[in-house]
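Worked Example 4.2. Consider the chain below.
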Amino acid sequence: MRIQFRDPIAAHGASAIPQLRRWLVDPRLSAFAVRTLEKIAADPSNRRTVLEALGSLDPRGVSEWTSRDVADASARITGKAPRSVGAGGHAGREPVEQWPGSRVVSPLELRFHDAMLDVFRLAGEATRRTRSDGTIERGYWASYFLRGVRNHGGLDYAHQLLRKQGTTDGFQRLKEEGRLDLTMEALVLRPEYTSLFSDEERRVAAHRLAEAGYQPPHG
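Applying the procedure from the previous section yields the following structure tokens:
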């Protein structure tokens, strides 16, 4: 599911929570569901219902990342340091996701940073596969990408990647999966982020996608 659908769905508030709760166990939609529930919880009147929905998830039935993602989202909503629980039920402490740096940034840049984190999560979930024996094949979790976003901030890291020659391993994997819509390049070309990038950077992003045979719907 595309990242840009989050806000329109979140606008439905409490009425959207039951469906999002069901999506938490869907490997294709869990990351999106967590982000949307967290958005809904920004309204204090919905916070308790969202926390109940997140708390209802059985970690044994989902990936370790999904379990950690849910635990960290609950922690951000309550303002507590998260205790992420993996598939095996073992708890470990994880830092609350926050802006990596001291400089003041615009709300639009913070939105882009959040969207870059969503790219990592959605790409990982989208590349998971169920084997013929019913077991789950782990998706492609680009740890280098997550490190880059967390260390530099989503916008600065996108600038770095656009300056580099060629594409990343993650881009190639998403090309193989037919999910180039989940690349950093596709995110850069979304109309709402036009002001964050130069014409040359947007040209580079469009060229990479075109070379791979993908045309963004808004391009």
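Residues 9 and 15 are 10 Å apart (CA to CA). DSSP finds eleven helices and four strands in the chain. Compare this with Example 4.1 before moving on.
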